[in-house]
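Saturday, quiet lab. Running sequence design on the structure tokens for the scaffold JK sent over.
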């Protein structure tokens, strides 16, 4: 992405939302046909996770996913550049009492990779300081826009994965909620193999370990993209988490994400190689490697 393209996207973000939505949906159909490697990855994921449905139904979910994804990409520039009042109108919060109920405990807001991830995180920063992490993008212009856009309210803090968690832990202990993205395949390090839709998936144990380390409450946070904007849904804090078994706690997290995915299957990030890392002796499920998807983490 060049700076002139960024300027164009900033300009598009000022359009009325129904027009922006139509642009996203139409371009999503185009990208479904054009971005063949990502389509193949997503189709593989859907076959693995939903073997019981027809190929036609998987194709319907996949087409809708590309439309949702492109809509959410355009919406990022609303989140990064438009006034706070427009963001409040665009993203509604439900269940905020669950965040209040944890009191003074450190908090991890468990935010899986649905297309509304950015919208929910940005909306929450309008009312409080937040911490989150991100994956550095290969495109320097997009990377800088993302870093700046996500922290423009309430002195929020964004770490790259390479920074480690020491400063995040310090801020959590001071009462700053950690918007944590737990469900990408980052390799076998610090991960366990637990089921995701019945398929063994390398899943980081960071959520359980952090909760154990600082006594944090886990408040799940899932953001849905609707016809008119977003709904950021907060859920009650989990009881008895993580317990003594990190693997069982991590499997519990995956079951929660599965349940939310079943509620809106086209909005989960299927273009990510969720099953890239395999248990010893298992074959690659995706074939030849391709470049990572544009991250929403």
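Result came back. Writing it out in full:
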């Amino acid at each position: 992405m060049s700076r002139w393209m960024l300027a164009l996207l900033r300009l598009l973000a000022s359009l009325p939302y129904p027009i922006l939505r139509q642009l996203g949906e139409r371009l999503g159909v185009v990208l479904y046909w054009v971005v063949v490697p990502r389509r193949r990855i997503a189709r593989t994921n859907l076959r693995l996770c939903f073997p019981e449905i027809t190929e036609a139904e998987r194709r319907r979910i996949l087409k809708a996913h590309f439309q949702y994804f492109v809509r959410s990409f355009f919406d990022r520039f609303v989140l990064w550049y438009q006034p706070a009042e427009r963001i409040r109108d665009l993203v509604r919060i439900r269940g905020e009492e669950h965040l209040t109920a944890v009191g003074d405990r450190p908090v991890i807001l468990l935010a899986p990779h649905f297309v509304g991830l950015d919208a929910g995180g940005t909306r929450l920063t309008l009312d409080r300081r937040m911490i989150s992490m991100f994956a550095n993008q290969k495109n320097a212009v997009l990377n800088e826009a993302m870093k700046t856009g996500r922290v423009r309210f309430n002195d929020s803090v964004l770490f790259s994965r390479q920074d480690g968690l020491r400063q995040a832990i310090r801020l959590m202990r001071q009462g700053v909620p950690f918007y944590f993205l737990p469900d990408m395949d980052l390799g076998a390090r610090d991960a366990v193999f637990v089921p995701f839709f019945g398929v063994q998936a390398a899943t980081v144990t960071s959520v359980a370990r952090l909760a154990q380390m600082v006594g944090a409450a886990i408040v799940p946070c899932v953001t849905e993209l609707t016809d008119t904007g977003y709904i950021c849904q907060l859920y009650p804090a989990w009881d008895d988490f993580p317990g003594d078994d990190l693997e069982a706690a991590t499997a519990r997290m995956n079951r929660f994400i599965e349940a939310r995915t079943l509620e809106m299957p086209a909005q989960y990030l299927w273009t990510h190689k969720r099953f890239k890392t395999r248990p010893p002796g298992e074959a690659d499920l995706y074939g030849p490697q391709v470049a990572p998807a544009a991250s929403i983490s």
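Notes for JK: DSSP finds eleven helices and nine strands in the chain. Residues 3-267 form one domain. Ask whether to fix the surface positions before the next round.
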